[in-house]
């Protein structure tokens, strides 16, 4: 397989080639996956608060829509570029198929440091992005959602702008919205909730300890929530980190207090000796690299891509890695970890809770019938656990890593949808 974005295929082709040995997929279906369905680059002029005009670069990539409208987040980050967005759109294609959602994969982004913008500038940028891409998205075409440095407020602005353009109320165009604008209960914690469901479903198969230890890299919304869920489930969360560094306590951190202090101060450093935290235990400071190499039962990378690469894979001591970030383990690191018997629960399964509840939100918007938080949580758990156990059994049957099993399952499902439109044998048979 080859096609757009060498950076994508250089890292992903090895995983795909291995998965193809276990997938039922035609050459026609693979040909469809060689290139994104569409790649849109836009310029977004924004009037700044000081009266000056700045132009930002924006992107939207729809990778494949064989199984339904494309689905994927919008990220605001200084490093956003078309190759990254294409890669993420491809992963979303796989992820939606792994969870058997009626979506294809897409992704979008703007090259910007949102921390440098005022709230008004951020709103103008968000609405400007929708102005630029409005003809390419829609409830039946492409449904964006939040991603890195975007949130419910920004999704609300975007949905409102799209509705203004269409002169109609169109809540299903975007998911991850505020509840009063048609958002779903449970969406803000869905990624962590789904990851927790997966690790708990596989806990007896992977983690023998009565009180397993865990370390979480990335203490944003997803990382803080999974740390709290693990803590409440009896895990000893010994380390957490943000972009400034990590804190460590061998006896286990009191995650509710650390989370509270982080929310109040915006820095983990405040948790070293602040009230009850300082009284609970002595904390050590670590770098993010040192956190990754801790001897824990479960390592949870919940930050950005390529946290674990070939360069540091040999330092990883955790026997289980739960990928809550997108692409935190490179393909070369994947192979190195597999040789050492490390089980990687792949992102296309582990962090799919977000897109699953986004699907629930989209469905609720389309019907006008809204579910309780309990119903959302139950339906998420049912889907995450069911797919996790099915992939575990498939991987065990074939003696392959979970990621290979996930890609094989996804390729089979995408292939079936693509082939339903016709394939070579249909046109050449006598």
How would you describe what is shown here?
There is one protein chain. With 430 residues, the protein is of the alpha/beta class. It contains 16 helices and twelve strands. Strands 9-8-7-6-10-11-12 form a seven-stranded mixed sheet. Strands 1-2-4-3-5 form a five-stranded mixed sheet, with helices on both faces. Helix 3 links the parallel strand 3 (70-77) and strand 4. Helix 6 crosses helix 14 (373-398) and helix 13 packs across helix 14 (373-398). The two termini are 29 Å apart.
Secondary structure tally, helices: 16
Instruction: Briefly note the structural class of the backbone.
Output: alpha/beta
Query: How far apart, in Å, are the first and last alpha carbons?
Result: 29 Å
Order of helices and strands: HHEEEHEHEHHEHEEHHEHEEHEHHHHH
Indicate the proportion of strand residues. Answer: 15-25%
Give the overall average pLDDT.
90
- Which strands sit side by side, in order, in the main sheet? 9-8-7-6-10-11-12
Radius of gyration: 21 Å
Low-confidence stretches: 1-6, 270-281
Gross geometry:
globular
Say what oligomer this is.
Answer: single chain
Q: Sketch the major β-sheet.
A: 7 strands, mixed
Q: What percent of residues adopt helix (DSSP H or I)?
A: 40-55%
Keywords:
430 residues; alpha/beta; seven-stranded mixed β-sheet; 12 strands; 17% strand; disordered N terminus
């Amino acid at each position: 397989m080859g096609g757009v974005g060498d950076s994508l295929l250089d890292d992903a082709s090895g995983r795909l080639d291995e998965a193809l040995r276990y997938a039922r997929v035609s050459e026609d279906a693979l040909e469809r996956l060689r290139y994104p369905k569409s790649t849109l680059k836009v310029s977004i002029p924004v009037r700044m608060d000081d009266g000056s005009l700045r132009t930002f670069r924006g992107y939207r990539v729809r990778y494949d829509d064989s199984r339904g409208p494309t689905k994927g987040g919008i990220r605001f980050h200084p490093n956003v570029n078309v190759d990254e967005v294409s890669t993420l759109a491809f992963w979303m294609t796989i992820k939606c198929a792994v969870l058997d959602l009626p979506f294809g994969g897409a992704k979008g982004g703007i090259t910007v440091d949102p921390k440098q913008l005022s709230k008004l500038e951020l709103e103008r940028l968000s609405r400007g992005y929708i102005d630029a891409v409005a003809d390419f998205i829609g409830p039946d075409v492409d449904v964006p959602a939040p991603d890195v440095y975007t949130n419910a407020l920004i999704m609300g602005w975007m949905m409102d702008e799209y509705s203004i353009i269409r002169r109609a109320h169109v809540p299903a165009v975007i998911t991850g919205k505020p509840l009063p604008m048609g958002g779903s209960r449970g969406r803000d914690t869905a990624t962590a909730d789904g990851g927790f469901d997966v690790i708990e479903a596989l806990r007896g198969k992977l983690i023998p300890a009565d009180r397993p230890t865990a370390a979480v890299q990335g203490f944003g919304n997803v990382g803080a929530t999974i740390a709290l869920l693990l803590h409440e489930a009896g895990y000893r969360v010994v380390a957490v980190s943000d972009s400034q560094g990590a804190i460590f306590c061998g006896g286990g951190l009191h995650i509710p207090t650390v989370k509270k202090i982080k929310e109040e101060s915006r820095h983990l450093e405040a948790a070293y000796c602040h009230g009850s935290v300082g009284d609970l235990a002595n904390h050590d400071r670590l770098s993010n690299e040192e956190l990754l190499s801790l001897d824990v039962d479960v390592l949870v990378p919940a930050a950005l891509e390529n946290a674990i690469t070939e360069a540091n894979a040999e330092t990883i001591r955790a026997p289980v890695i739960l990928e809550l970030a997108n692409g935190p383990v490179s393909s070369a690191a994947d192979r190195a970890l597999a040789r050492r018997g490390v089980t990687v629960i792949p992102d296309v399964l582990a962090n799919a809770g977000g897109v699953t509840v986004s699907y629930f939100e989209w469905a609720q918007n389309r019907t006008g019938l809204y579910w309780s938080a309990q119903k959302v949580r139950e339906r998420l758990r049912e889907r995450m656990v069911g797919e996790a156990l099915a992939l575990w059994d498939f991987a065990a049957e074939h003696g392959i890593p979970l990621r290979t099993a996930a890609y094989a399952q996804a390729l089979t499902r995408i292939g079936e949808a693509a082939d339903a439109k016709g394939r070579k044998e249909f046109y050449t048979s006598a």
